[in-house]
Specification:
Four Helix Bundle (Hemerythrin (Met), subunit A)
Amino acid sequence: MATIPLHEGPSVGFDAPFEMLEACHDRVERMLSLLERLCAHLEQRGGEVDDQARQAARDVMRYFDLAAPNHHEDEERHVFPALREQGEAALADRLQAEHAELAAAWHALKPTLAALADDRWDAAVAPQWEAFVALYRRHVADEDERAYPAAAAAIDDRCLVRMAEEMAHRRGLR
């Protein structure tokens, strides 16, 4: 099992904010796939934790601790208000509520990865991991298929520039 470097991925910058958000979804998918492969890897090894498993657990924790909250904030500041302007308040409200649900699911799951990083694996957590993956994938699909196209239609070029600047600024990049 190879670890996934978090710095690789599509070479999209903040100057194209919706493309950046989509690239973040690509990285989310890579982390979810890594979580699935990690579970399979541990099952194949009879629960024996090795360096690859420890590193994969650390990679997943780093992503969902750092990048995912920033991504959700980007959506809550820029995408969801645009959805509401487009008459899609119910969709924006549901996606925002799912952010809270995803955060709670992550906080429940993270200790299982921290234990794994410390050489402790309990196969009983596998269904929890599977539920997290399924929940996140449904959420991302709704954003990609419905939310982003509707929000992008509501945001003019000037607002896109401000959106890009704010996203980069919050990350200390501009």
